[in-house]
Amino acid sequence: MYISKIKVKEAMGRQGLVTFTELAKKLGITKNQLSLMLSVEYNPLKTRVQDLCSLLAVSPADIMDLGGNKKHKLTVIKETDDSDITAIELFAGAGGLSLGLEKAGIKTLEFVEFDKACCETLKKNRPNWNIICDDIHNVNFKEYNGKVDVVTGGFPCQAFSYAGKKLGFEDTRGTLFHEFARCVQEVQPKIFLAENVRGLLSHDKGRTFQTIIGVMESIGYHTQYKVLNAAYYGVGQKRERIFIIGIRNDLSIKFDYPTPHKAMTTLRSALKECPISPGEEYSEKKRKVLELVPPGGCWVNLPEEIAKQYMGKSYYSGGGRRGMARRISWDEPCLTLTCSPSQKQTERCHPDFTRPFTVREYARIQSFPDDWNFSGGIGDQYKQIGNAVPVELARKVCVQIKKAIMDYRQETTNISCDGVLFR
Question: Any idea what DSSP says for residue 263?
C-alpha cells in the first residue's frame, strides 16, 4: 500500500495545483520531502499524509494504491468457456485497442502495461480486468500456451543492430518487439495483431519492418499487413496506422481487413454534443497568431511577416508543413492527434474557439466513449489519448479477427461431423 502519484496529480488538478513544487510549498515541505512521501517505500499512515489529504480535499483511500488487481493466470483461464474467443493484449496503454477487443466480443485474459497512469486508467474503467502493471520483460506467458486465440499489441518502433547480417529472433533481444515475439512464441495463439505507425514501413530504410516480418515467420506465422486510415473507419481523424496480422502456419484461417467507408468521418460528427471538460490553453503569443487563421486554414493564411516570425527556420524548409498553425474545420477529419495539444508545429486548433481541443474532445476524436475516464494530470491524459489506437478502428479490425476465428471453428466442426480426424 502506497500513495499513488497519479491519483495525487488528479486531486491537484481539482485544486488548481499544476506542479509538485507548488504542492510542496503549500504543505510547507521541500520538494525532496514530497518525493519521499510519494515513493512506494513511504508509510502512508504518517501524520503528514493527513495534511496532504486535507490540502487536496480527499480521503486517504482516494489517493492510495493497494497493490493492483492482478489475478493468477490459471484463475483467469478457468473463468472462460470453450465458446469464448480469448486474447492477451501487450502495451495496452489507455485502452483504445482493449476497448476494440471488448466491443468486438473478444475476451481478453491479460493486459500488460508499464505506464502507471495508463494502468490507473484501465483499473478505474474496468476494475475486473486482469491488468499487469509491470515491465513486460518480467512477465511469463507460458501458462497461456495453447489457451489463447489472439495476441495483440502496438510495440514502439525501435531500430535493430544489424552488423551486416540478417537478424533472427534472438538477435532482436533488448527491444520491445522481441518481447512481443516472445509472447507469441510462448503462447502460440491462432492469430496475432501488431499495430504500429505507418513510418514502420520505411524505418531504417525498410530494414526494421523486414526484420519484424522475418522473425514472425521464423517462429511459425505467415503474415499480411495493410495501412488503414482511421478517417475511413468511423473515426473523425486522419490517422494512418499499419496493422500486421499473423496466422499460425498449421491453421487454415482466412482474415480479411474491414471494408472502408466511402467518405471520411468529419470533426462535426465526432464532436456532436461532446461533454464539457478541462483542457490546455495556448500561450498569449500563440493565441494571437492563431486568431488570424480561418477554419481549415494554416500558416499560409497568415501575413507573411507574422508567418516568418512564427515559423522561424521552418518557413524556409521544404514540404507542405500544413500542420503548422492549423485550425481544423468542422467538415473535415482532424489531423492526427499528438501527445501534446499545444506543441509548436503540430497545432490542432478548435474550429470556433482559439484553443486546443479539450481532453474530452481529444477522446471523442479518438472515438473513446464519454464514460471512459483518464487518470493522472491533464498532461498525462492528453498523452494517453494521443498514443491510443482509435477505438472504432480497433473494433472494426477485431470484429474481422473474431469472424476469421469463428469461421475456422465452424469449418473444423463441419469436418469433424463428416468423420474426418482433425487437430
Answer: S
Contact of 235 with 394, CB cutoff 8 Å: no
- Say which residues have a Cβ less than 8 Å from residue 271's Cβ, sequence separation at least 6: 236, 361, 364, 365
* Three-state SS at 322: coil
- Grid coordinates standing for 337? 492527434
- Amino acid letter for position 148: V
User: With contact defined as beta carbons under 8 Å apart, do 344 and 391 qualify?
Assistant: no
Instruction: State the pairing for strand pair 221-229/240-248.
Output: antiparallel
Q: How far apart are CA 106 and CA 85, in angstroms?
A: 5
Contact 280, 378 (CB under 8 A): yes
Grid coordinates given for 147: 489457451
Distance CA 257, CA 264 (A): 17
- Cα gap 178→231, rounded to integer Å: 31
Q: Which residues are within 8 A (CB) of 36 and not within 5 positions of it... i.e. 6 or more apart?
A: 42
H helices, E strands: number in the chain: 15, 9
Contact (CB, 8 A) for 26 and 15? no
Partners of 248 in the β-ladder: 221
Q: What φ, ψ does residue 221 adopt, rounded to 5°?
A: -130, 135
Closest CA to 92 of 4, 180, 33: 180
d(CA 193, CA 200): 15
pTM of the model: 0.84
How far is 341 from 320, CA to CA, in rounded Å?
20
β-bridge partners, 245:
193, 224
C-alpha grid cell for residue 389?
489506437
* 27: phi then psi, degrees, rounded to nearest 5: -80, -15
Active site residue 157: yes
- Along the chain (423 residues), what's the average pLDDT of each consecutive run of 10 residues? 77 82 84 79 68 80 67 67 93 97 97 95 96 95 96 80 55 83 97 94 88 95 98 97 97 97 98 96 94 95 92 77 88 94 85 97 98 95 96 98 96 67 46
Q: What is the CA radius of gyration of the chain?
A: 24
The secondary structure of residue 334, as a DSSP letter, is B
Please name which of 362, 288, 298, 371 lies closest in space to residue 328, comparing C-alpha atoms: 298
Measured distance CA(312)–CA(304) in Å, rounded: 12
- How far, in Å, CA of 71 to CA of 87, rounded? 15
The catalytic position among 118, 119, 157, 298 is 157
